[in-house]
Design a protein that fits this description.
With 379 residues, the protein is of the alpha/beta class. It contains 12 helices and 14 strands. The chain folds into 2 domains: 201 residues, 3-Layer(aba) Sandwich (Rossmann fold), CATH 3.40.50; 126 residues, Rossmann fold. The radius of gyration is 23 Å and the shape is globular.
Length: 379
């Protein structure tokens, strides 16, 4: 009898140990970022910010006593590779959610994968087609290009400029921006008098800018991500083009100023508030989060926290809230993401719903301009 009791106690002890070990297992979150390649100015700060906030969550005790484990893969900005790595995260790493990808093209390629697997994904990309129409398992933190276009057009209307030229990159981000620039123009009394494109790797856009100079445009809007917009800024300066130059939020970081050099002076663009966090009024709901993020990023990486790193910070924090409220199952996370209301993050104040998986309004953007090699608010 004593042997039976001892054996039973041993079994109970083993089961308890196994149960405790299972309870303490980390919660795996996948991440797909373009850490290398042409889009590394997006992916590197996203990777850094995601790991930073995961480390801080774990240092504070994790989520309900469980640590987070971030499994990061570098897509290199390659859509085919992004699909392969998304499958790896789901089938091999058994993640419960995915943060990223960094680019619209990568994200659109990965969407069928996560939808089929029922794994929630929070993209760090801006293209409106990512969340319109709504996909059940796909959310995003980057502000929609719809809102960015509206912010530029509002400013042009305020300045009574009605004729514009647009120059957009021939990739998914540029195509989405071009579509919005054209579809919203009449609403603001804008006439597009020149419409041209450039390739993501084109080293010179003088030909396009020369055509634009011969048009009746009162302003030029360039839509793309580095390095193309910086090339356009330098080419415009070389040509002596006097048109006011607007860029998209795709270059909303100090990297653009570094690449464009003196040619960046005076350029305007819509941006998340993080670039000018210290200039915001005390009443701004985001200011506390923004200043904390900027300070933490500077301390960890000796660099300014930017718009793009903020997308990943928001994504991880949104997942944290969803897991706290709904558990660690993919469907529990998905349902709680969709129920998120009033989360004041880096990119804006997020309120998702069954009809809106982007979650932001145009108030997420401010208009900034380059002054003396730094960002300033446009009043």
């Amino acid at each position: 009898m004593k042997r039976l009791i001892s054996a039973a106690l041993a079994v109970v002890s083993l089961l308890s140990f196994a149960s405790a070990a299972l309870a303490a297992a980390p919660i795996k979150i996948g991440a797909l970022f373009a850490v290398t390649g042409p889009a590394s100015f997006l992916g590197e700060p996203e990777r850094n910010a995601a790991q930073m906030v995961v480390d801080e969550i774990n240092k504070a005790g994790g989520i309900k006593g469980r640590k987070l484990e971030l499994v990061v893969y570098d897509t290199g900005g390659d859509a085919t590779k992004a699909v392969q790595l998304a499958n790896k995260l789901i089938k091999n790493d058994h993640v419960v959610a995915i943060v990223g990808p960094s680019t619209t093209g990568d994200t659109m390629a990965v969407i069928p994968v996560v939808e089929k697997a029922h794994i929630p994904m929070i993209s760090c990309s801006a293209g409106i087609k990512i969340t319109e129409p709504v996909k059940k398992y796909v959310f995003k933190t980057a502000q929609n290009d719809t809102l960015a276009v509206a912010r530029i057009y509002e400013q042009l209307k305020k300045e009574r400029k009605s004729k514009v030229a647009i120059l957009t990159v021939s990739d998914s981000f540029g195509s989405s921006g071009r579509e919005q620039l054209k579809s919203q123009a009449s609403r603001y009394g804008i006439e597009i008098v020149a419409d041209d494109t450039y390739g993501p790797k084109d080293p010179d856009m003088t030909a396009q800018l020369t055509k634009i100079r011969g048009s009746k445009a009162q302003a030029l809007i360039c839509w793309g991500t580095n390095p193309g917009p910086a090339v356009i800024a330098r080419n415009a300066q070389q040509l002596g083009l006097k048109l006011p130059l607007y860029m998209s939020h795709g270059v909303s970081s100090k990297k653009f100023i570094d690449l464009a050099g003196d040619a960046a002076e005076g350029i305007r663009l819509p941006s998340g508030k993080v670039l000018v966090a210290d200039l915001l009024p005390k009443t701004d709901k985001q200011k506390g989060s923004l200043l904390a993020f900027v300070k933490d990023y500077q301390r960890h990486f000796s660099a300014a926290g930017d718009h793009f790193g903020g997308h990943a910070w928001d994504a991880v924090m949104l997942l944290k809230g969803a897991i706290e409220r709904g558990g660690d199952t993919p469907d529990g996370i998905r349902n709680q993401l969709e129920a998120t209301r009033g989360f004041a993050g880096i990119g804006g104040v997020f309120s998702y719903s069954p009809r809106d998986h982007a979650g932001l309004t145009k108030d997420a953007f401010v208009l900034v301009e380059v002054k003396k090699k730094d960002w300033a608010l446009v009043k």
